[in-house]
Amino acid sequence: MSSVRHLVLVLGDQLDPGSAAFDGFDAKRDVVWMAEVAGESGNVWSTQVRTTLFLAAMRHFRDRARKAGRRVDYCELDDTENRQTLAGELERASHRLRPQRLIVVQPGEWRVQEALQSAAKTLGLDLEIRPDRHFLASPETFAEHAKGRRQLRMEFFYREMRRRHDVLVLPSGEPEGGEWNFDHENRESFGRTAPNPPAPRAFPPDRLTREVIALVRKRFADRPGDLDRFDWPVTPEDAEAALTDFVEHRLRDFGRHQDAMWVGEPWLYHSRLAAAMNLKLLDPRRVIAAAVAAYRAGTAPLPAVEGFIRQILGWREYVRGIYWRFMPGYLERNALGATAALPKFFWTGDVPMTCLQDAIGQSLSLGYAHHIQRLMVTGLYALMLGVDPKQVHAWYLAVYVDAVEWVELPNTLGMSQYGDGGVMASKPYIATGRYIERMSNACRQCRFDPAEAVGPKACPFTTLYWDFLLRHRDLLAANPRMGLQVRNLGNLSAERARSIQRRAEQIRRGDGVPPPDEALLPGLSP
User: What are phi and psi for residue 257, nearest 5 degrees?
Assistant: First the structure.
């Protein structure tokens, strides 16, 4: 006779003690199963910071579960018997515990779900996949929204979600403030005045987290990441404190400066809450309620609160819907036929463009960059360079502490790289270096001129922008939102167009790095 009724599987991004996996949990007959496996850190080359956050949060969850009286079967990364794959460890635990049934909340990655289903089948055990109540919209809810629509656009889904959950909506069904979207008020740069944002609350590593840091440094010494600066929340209490800190000190200025950048200032007015929500340390309903309460109390203006809530109730739920509706084929989409390799400097930050150096450097060191740095700096460069979107996806998944595939893949492959051909975004988001000049101070510290497309001082963003338009002219001409940009190609003489294309090819041949002067690289025709 089996000694265990249910083996409840808890993955590294499912650290919610109140999740559906625990419905009906009997401490006398059921066991929680968790495993740290190198295979999950090696599926993509995860940085030390990302790996540390996941393992530290998992170990804190384990200890709390045990303290609450739940039996936890937990395998640490350096256990000598660890098979280092989820399937391998599940098999080992199942042979030891002989459960009647496996239970898990829907994973955040198609690959993991398939691996667990395959392992359960091999073991001859039923695997019950329960819905993830952490989210405000189920995949079925999104499918109902998508039914019959020729195009899927976040804005319309967001309005539905606002009404469904009664968030900043009047009794008439109309939005508070008369507008659903205050984007037009949320695009300010800092100009020439350096920002002075309140530093976000830090959470120094406790004993358990320090043990994880030592393990990660030893096991993954060849991977990037500054663990001396590790201060992410790894418990629900820390996550709640981080939310309070953001709402009290930065939310009021978040809106108007949410798209702005400043070299050497990674956090600015952003919340740093995505990782806590994605690991299920913090419920998004609590985050939304705290933001609304700040608006009601008069401590944060409506445009800031609406812009913040849109990222959670809008984008976050929307991208999850996209992910589960279009996987597994979504991962293979490459609408622009991009095949270039990801430049090596994405793993070092050793690149002469100040904006890229800053965004990549902080990403590797801290595991963080805000949405405009991801979309309009690192993502924009990879898009216009023509990098294979699957390689860009793998980098984002490896580097950022908040990256779980359900949220990262649509944002990267779809929104950033236009690899899905317009499912996520209505057009490719492309721009010259002038956009970065307008939204940051990076260009003032850079040897390249964003106004120039050719010549030794030409900004690679500007060169690649015009080259992108030239390479994809026919495709983009059919997009009504790209009409003006495509028509601007008519202002280029044939000679200038050829010069731009030659320089763009130099950049591509130089692993994404511009040549030091106008001399053609070997093997290129003038």
Answer: -110, 15
Angle separating helix axes 284-297 and 236-249, nearest 10 degrees: 30
Question: CA-CA distance, 507 to 243, in Å (whole number)?
Answer: 43
- Cross-sheet strand order for the sheet of 72-75: 72-75, 31-35, 4-9, 99-105, 126-130
Nearest to 311 by CA among 385, 415, 225, 466: 415
Q: What is the pTM of this model?
A: 0.95
Provide the token pair at 359.
Answer: 């965004």
Kindly indicate whether the domain formed by 4-130 is annotated with CATH number 3.40.50.620: yes
pLDDT 10s digits, 103-142: 999 999 999 999 999 999 999 999 999 999 999 999 999 9
344-509: what fold?
DNA Cyclobutane Dipyrimidine Photolyase, subunit A; domain 3 (1.10.579)
Q: Are strands 99-105 and 72-75 parallel, antiparallel or unpaired?
A: unpaired
DSSP per residue, 326-383:
HTTGGGG--TT---BPPPGGGGT---S-HHHHHHHHHHHHHS---HHHIIIIIHHHHH
Q: How many helical (H) and strand (E) elements, i.e. helices and strands, does the chain have?
A: 23, 5
Task: Look at the domain 139-200+250-326 and name its fold.
Answer: 1.25.40
CA atoms within 13 A on the CB side of 428: 32
Per-residue DSSP letter, 174? P
